[in-house]
Amino acid sequence: MKAMVQFGLWGNCPNNCDFCLRLERRDYTHSEQLEWIRNIKENIKTIDWKNEFEYGISLLGGELYYIKNREVQLEFLDLIDTIIETIIKPSDTAQYSTVTNGLYDPEFLFEVLDKFKNTVGMDRVDINFSYDLKYRYANEKMRQKALSTIYAVRDRYNYTCGVQMILTQHLINLWKEGKWDINEFMEKDIPGCRFSFLYPHPINTGKILFDFFFNRKDFLDFLMYLRNANFEVYLNFINSTKNSGTFKYTGMRYRADGYKTDQKPILSDGKEEIASCGHSKLYRCYADSDKCVLCDLQLIEGEF
C-alpha cells in the first residue's frame, strides 16, 4: 500500500502557535517521554512495512528536536536506529519523514540526521520546516532563528530542506495587495529549499483567527495565480492535498489506560470522518462556504 505511518510522540514544544492543532496540550515528563519512545519501538516491530506501509514512517511532536534531557535524547536516537534497521534499510521506497519548527539549537537534530547520513543517506530523509507569516512567531528574532536552522541543515548536508506554509486568508490578502510573491519569497527567504503549501487545519487552541481560513473565491483566484507563477509549487499543493486524507495513517493512536503496543495504524483525527461528497470533512476548510476544497481541486484538474 502506498501509505506511511505517522506517530505523534508528545505535545512538548518551545513555541505556542495560535493555530496549533495538537489535541493533547500538556507536556510529557521525562519518564513519560521515555515510556512512549519505547512503546513506539515495540509497535514498529508489529507493522508490515513492506506490504502495507511501503513509504515508511513519520515522527511528529510537539517539537521532537528540542529535547534537553540526555537520557531522552539517547532513547530517541535508539528509536532512530530501530527505524533505520527495521524500516529504511530493507526497503527501496521507505523514508523517514519529520516536521520541525527549527526554534532551537540544532545540535541534537544533527545527531539524528547524522545517523541517516552515515547509514542509508540523506535521500531517505524528508525533513520539513514549518514556517508561517502570521500566528507562528512572537517576534522577528524567532523567525530568524527558524531560518538559521533551515540554512544550517541545508549547508551541513548539502540538502534540499522542505519548508511548509499554511495557505491562509492572511497570505492571500498580502498577495492581493501586491505585498507577497511566491518566487520572490523563495529566492529571498528560503534559497535552495523546496517549498509547499498546506491547506488550513482545525484550530485546537480555542482562539478565533479571522484571517486563517480562506474565502472560496480568493482561494481559487490565488490557485490560478500560483499555477502560472510557480507550477511546481502548484502541482505539489494539488498532490499533497489529494493524498493528505489517506496517505498518512496514525500509529499508536490510543493512549488511555490499558493501551496496547500492538495497535494497528488507523486513519484518525478527522481523516476517517467522511462528508457527503466522499472526502474527509477536513477538506471543508473554507471560511465562507461548506464546499469541499478537494472537490474544487478535482474540478480544476479533471479528477487528477
Q: What is the radius of gyration computed over CA atoms, rounded to a whole number of angstroms?
A: 19 Å
Secondary-structure content class: alpha/beta
The percent range for strand residues is 5-15%
Helix content: 25-40%
Could you name the CATH homologous superfamily? Aldolase class I
How would you concisely characterize the structure shown here?
The protein is an alpha/beta fold and 304 residues long. 38% of the residues lie in helices and 12% in strands.
Structure description:
The chain has 304 residues and is α/β, with parallel strands linked by helices. The protein has one domain: Alpha-Beta Barrel (TIM Barrel). Helices cover 38% and strands 12% of the residues. It contains 9 helices and 7 strands; from the N terminus they run E-H-E-H-E-H-E-H-E-H-H-E-H-H-E-H. It has helices spanning 30-44, 70-88, 107-117, 140-157, 169-176, 182-188, 216-229, 231-244, 293-301; strands spanning 4-8, 56-60, 95-100, 125-130, 162-166, 194-198, 248-250. It has a 7-stranded parallel sheet. Helix 3 links the parallel strand 3 (95-100) and strand 4 (125-130). It is globular and about 50 Å long.
Task: Give keywords.
globular; 9 helices; alpha/beta; 304 residues; TIM Barrel; 7-stranded parallel β-sheet
Write the topology of this structure.
Blueprint: E1 4-8, H1 30-44, E2 56-60, H2 70-88, E3 95-100, H3 107-117, E4 125-130, H4 140-157, E5 162-166, H5 169-176, H6 182-188, E6 194-198, H7 216-229, H8 231-244, E7 248-250, H9 293-301
